[in-house]
Amino acid sequence: MALIRAEGLGKSYGATRAVDDLSFEVHPGSVTGFLGPNGSGKSTTMRLMLGLDRGDGATTYDGRTFGELDHPMRHVGALLEAKPFHPTRHARNHLRMLAAPNRIPDSRVDQVLDMVGLTTVSGGKPGKFSLGMGQRLGIASALLGDPDTLILDEPSNGLDPQGITWLRHLLKHLAGEGRSVLVSSHLLQEMAVLADELVVIGRGRMIANGPVADFVTGSGLGAVEVRTPDAALLAPALTALGATLTEEGEVLVVRGATAEQVGEAAHDAGARLHQLATRQATLEEAFLAATGQSEEFRGTSGDGA
Question: What residue ranges define each of the domains in the chain, with the CATH number in brackets?
Answer without folding.
Answer: 4-75+147-217 (3.40.50.300), 223-270 (no CATH)
